[in-house]
Fold:
Amino acid sequence: MQYKDIAEILKKQRDFFNSNRTKEIPYRLEMLKRLKTALKNYEDRIAKALFSDLGKSHFEAYATEIGHVLEEIGMQIRHLKSWARPRKVHTPVVLFPGKSFIYPEPYGLVLIISPWNYPLILTLSPLISALSAGNCAVIKPSRYSPAVSQVMETMIGEYFGTEYISVFQGGSEINQILFREKFDFIVFTGSPEVGKIVMEAASKNLTPVILELGGKSPAVVDREADIELAAKRIVWGKFLNAGQTCVAPDYVLADKEIKTVLIEKMKKYLTLFFGADPEQSTDFSRIISDKHMERLTGLLKKGTLVTGGKTDAAQRYIAPVILDDITPDDPVMQEEIFGPILPIIAYNGLDEAIRFINHRPKPLALYFFSGSRRKQQQVIKETTAGGCAINDTVMHLANPYLPFGGIGNSGMGAYHGDTGFNSLSHFKSIYRNSTLIDLPVRYPPSKGKLPLIKFFLK
Structure:
């Protein structure tokens, strides 16, 4: 696609937005319902595309992507009218007899750049927030998940006009073309390195951004945890989508007293979930590309293989790996793993585990397993992360009432539910004064008025 083609479509979007059609609440509701219909009609094609790109089963495709998108749309439809209503706020007596309001309005054109690991939900979830807030949208899906990207482009093209939602496929060259255009808001999901490039491009037009980045999300297992359940939920959260989940547990910090037992329990659940040979399991996904396969294989050179490690480059398959005898300086601890490799490090006392986490970039997620409420509160208070789950992994993302976002190196801004509506809306301040009364205190000459203004402005 040429620059002039993209520029022409964006001009049509700008003209359509300026027609004020998208600001109408009935129109927004109609479009959200249309997207819901589209998803239901395309469910099978989306599931097949997810299997083609990532080896996801239909169950996993629905449970982790399609179903959550449908739930998000339903929530937005139910609450949109109340969220979009102008909000009256208190007016100080010094501004009498005026009234004050906060008026949510759309930004305009929103650019959504989405990743390959959850290509449907991480594209459509921010899209839902953008449409709910009254914006037009441009979608740039990942070239690494071509089957899903093509299905989304076909679906959007069938149900929506390009003046409202456009999909541009391609690699970094398309990103560069898009970055030359002025958008009113950008939502990017991907790595911190690319996030910096996006933020730099956005700064040229002072465009606000939401950056959903990655990071090394720790799972901490305390000696007072339910070890059986901790092992089960860590294995599920880590090896979902073959570890290619931005909020997957990236590594485990285990109290030295329970580390050995925890490892044995995790090995047990790997077999229960995926069988003796995970390569034959329909529930175990594949690595997205040869490039990522090569990177992940390189991370297996240090540490002790507790289980797994079998690889098949032709199938882009790595058997689920648990790594022991890992040090903080090993390669597997220097970058986000984003694959089915789980390092385990022992700690001596919870304070040591907290220091370990706090001496590293702020993660997108943090998981803590313990039966002690005191320790739970200590971890919540003394650590920082985009989100946190106690005695579970990943499931905090399933609640559309909880914001999804990072902090520091793991991102900025958030969406989901009303947070998404608020993030993709500009809240305009409105002060409406009366023409019946005009208090003279604010006008010159000011002689003798200081005591009065001090009385009002205490």
